[in-house]
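input
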Amino acid sequence: MRKTVSSCKELTRNLWWSWDTEAKEIFKELSPILWERVNHNPVELLRHISNEELQSRCQCELGEKIERVAERFRTYMKQPDTWAAANVPELVKNPVAYFCAEFGIHESVRIYSGGLGVLAGDHIKSASDLGINFVGITLFYKEGYFRQYLNHDGWQLEDYPLQYAESLPIEKVTGPDGKDLIISVNIAQGEVFAQAWSLKVGRATLYLLDTNIPANESHYRDICCRVYGGDQNMRINQEIVLGIGGVKLINALGIKPAVYHMNEGHSAFLTLELLAQELAAGKPMEEAKKSVKNHCVFTTHTPVPAGHDRFSRDMMHYTFDRYLQQSGIDFDDLMLLGSEDRSNIYGLFTMTVLALNFSRAANGVSKLHGEVSRQMWQNLFEVGSPDLVPIGHITNGIHSQSWASGATERFWCKFTDSLDTLTASREAAEAVLENVSDEALWCLRYRLKRNLIDFIYRYLANQLFHQHTHSMYPEYDSSRMAKNTLSPDVLTIGFARRFATYKRAPLVFRDLERLNRIINHPTMPVQIVFAGKAHPHDDAGKDYIRQIVEHSRRPQFSGKVIFLENYNLGVAKRMVSGVDVWLNNPVRPMEASGTSGEKTVLHGGLNFSVLDGWWPEAYNGENGWSIGNGEMFDDYQEQDRFDAEKLYDVLENQIIPTYYEHDENNLPFKWLKKIRNAIATIAPEYNTHRMVRDYAEKYYLNRD
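output
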């Protein structure tokens, strides 16, 4: 029995459990209420369960389940015949060093803020599944990203609860002497020290740098306090610790990467440390630069010029003066490496430019984003045509196993060995779908929607419980909310993401009278579920949230338009599995890729989006719907008017009639046909297994 208890604790120490349905069910079975209370954190869960209870519980069938899952985990960890071993053995011998300012692996580890982090989390999971030797580098944010509350006016408030190392599946990194491994970086005229934690993600390892140690002055301890927290000075300090400190950590661990992958420009200072090492080895400057470039690749995620990190010359001089003196890099040469104008070293220093200057390969995250990026950076490369700019694209995907609910996975496993079959190829997916009846597929949709609605009711009830401080529904009691809540018989639309203004969350409310007719149609009603956070400094984004909350309180929308507070990965998983339609209406081409619409597919959800990001590549007219045909206007008001009109037209004339048109068996046969088409065409292509294979074969390897 002690072995089984040990196996249970073993499972908690590796985030592999976060994409294994049976492992998650084990922890939930130990205490469903505690499981929710600790935000699905098995380490914290076991801190509340005594060894006596755990030993006793392991004597029944739960113990058998634990051993079965633990054995599957151990087999996974030791599997020799991986895709990487067969196809990219170089990336098994030496690791990919993947730097990113955030990783969204699971809601219990709050070191992410949004889509960039979620993409990084899915990337590291697929790298593990494929058998790539993979090392992630990020920061350990003791307060993470914020917890969101809404006041009585619907205005976003932020709270920053601490997360403690002892409550997470992380371990202190030690040196050969058994003592804490400490690295240091020069910032301004001071020396900043950082310890490191390791987090196991399947076969991969994520290292988290942490400056909150006694060796540092108090203002340096807070560098790793919050994800994207603070002012420009805090931002540059975080990026120095991430990039320069990350390389120093890798060196201290004796790791020899096959490639350094900068996921967005936040980590681009790593190239300076690599350059300093080459210079210290005696190489001339140009040869040293060439060597650094030969070892680095870069992914940009930002199609908007204003979204790229830029620092003033004065800030760069103040921050890097001591570092440059010791590294042998001239300050003006440094400014040139980050200048968008090669003839001007007195302007702003741009992190993306630094990354592009030191990368042997660079890419956007969708075909359209690649085109936008080539146009944006054409002047940097001094070429006559954007087509000649050396920025390609690899379209983002999702880690399907992570985003499939337990009910969805069990459903598909009735017809195939694993979800991998559905994501392997279109032919494989179509072969599986041939054995799935319309009745079974519609049954899955109803079950998932009921699960979502039950979750929303519990979620809203919890908000109401705390209404004396934060509730967005102060005038409601729980019984009234229960009467007004959602119905599984009604077409359900979901919208959840970061509330940046370009994503236009309130667009559907542009014509309230028309929306009222749509939502309250006597025979074909609609309901909408919203969730999302605005950056703490983004008042315009916060006002979008306030507008939606205000609309949701209108009598005609009460109980039919819902906003869920404190959007996180857990809420996202519920929403993408339960909604019928995933709405996405950014200003084209400002959505670099977006992946939330990809997450609905295996659940039978359909995408409804502006032709931006990944959707122009995937949309075929039968696997979802588009808002317009890619029309773009210089005037934002004209763009909003046009897109809102198209949104309403498609809703009223295509989506709603298709959903409610049933055959003699009371099945929406046209709707189900679209679900089948979406699964067959989207699931096999828009997943991170395909994405990571593309990175490995096209970017990580340097076989020329």
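quick obs: Confidence is low (pLDDT under 50) at residues 467-479.
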